[in-house]
Design brief:
Blueprint: E1 2-6, H1 13-23, E2 28-31, H2 42-52, E3 55-56, H3 60-65, H4 76-86, H5 91-98, E4 103-106, E5 109-112, H6 127-133, E6 141-143, E7 151-157, E8 163-168, E9 175-177, E10 183-186, E11 200-206, E12 211-217, H7 221-230, H8 235-240
Parallel strand pairs: 1-2, 2-3, 5-6, 6-10
Antiparallel strand pairs: 1-11, 4-5, 7-8, 7-10, 9-12, 11-12
This protein binds zinc ion.
Length: 245
């Protein structure tokens, strides 16, 4: 089975459509949260995911837009975008988002937004954080989002025979075969990449390998920026899309 693994779409429908076109054909969509927030089309993105029968988890921006998470710890731009989103989410989108769990186990994978230890807030961005999270999920592999950076942490054996965790920063078309070594993989962000590459980032999981393949996909950034400007979303959120930062 071929599964499109998407995270941090953040209301960016043109990026989502470009990613779906690139990953097709696929049999299922798994999403890792932050469907809304920052971008100008939260309702349209939710409707598209619902139409595709996507399964997955909620992110901190989704919870905040539903009024289920306080926004004090969000920075000013993120909070402004959450408030904008909360004021526009239609009842059908609210219901769909509200039904998402914080954690999901499916076909030998654990899906969370942040980390298995703290699905809402923790960023798995370093080896120590990854290592301390490896004992916090029961499946062999875990899929996370939240950092907006494509990355995989994988158990490895050190030269002295001890355990260590290796990090691989995937590029476009990087493919890996998953094995018994436990891993935490991040597809990167569809709607707001932050690794210096402005192209949308996503992953294709083939459960027959199983293999993971990362993709970077161009999308019409200027169209999204125009919609954001019309919506009067914060200027810094509009600018950052063109730098991928
Ligand atoms: Zn996010």
């Amino acid at each position: 089975m071929r599964i499109a693994v998407l995270s941090d779409i953040h209301g960016n429908l043109p990026a989502l459509e470009a990613v779906l076109a690139s990953l097709a054909p696929f049999d299922a969509v798994w999403q890792l949260g932050d469907i809304c927030g920052y971008g100008p089309q939260p309702n349209e993105v939710v409707a598209r995911l619902a139409e595709l029968g996507a399964i997955g988890v909620r992110g901190n921006h989704d919870a905040a837009a539903l009024g289920e998470l306080a926004t004090e710890t969000f920075n000013d731009d993120a909070r402004a975008a959450v408030e904008w989103t909360a004021g526009r989410l239609e009842p059908a989108a609210q219901r769909w988002l509200a039904a998402l769990p914080a954690r999901l186990e499916v076909d030998g994978f654990t899906l969370v937004h942040g980390s298995p230890r703290d699905p809402t807030w923790e960023y798995v961005y370093s080896v120590p954080v990854a290592r301390s999270n490896l004992s916090r999920f029961a499946t062999d592999h875990c899929l996370v989002g939240h950092t907006h950076v494509p990355l995989i942490f994988r158990e490895a054996v050190a030269h002295d025979g001890g355990a260590r965790v290796e990090t691989i920063a995937p590029d476009h078309r990087t493919a890996l075969t998953l094995d018994a070594r436990r891993s935490i993989a991040n597809p990167g962000s569809v709607g707001q990449p932050r690794d210096g590459d402005r192209r949308a980032s996503a992953m294709l999981l083939d459960t027959d390998g199983p293999t993971l393949e990362w993709r970077r996909i161009d999308y019409p950034i200027a169209d999204v920026q125009r919609m954001m400007a019309r919506a009067r979303l914060p200027a810094r959120l509009i600018t950052r899309l063109q730098f991928g930062l």
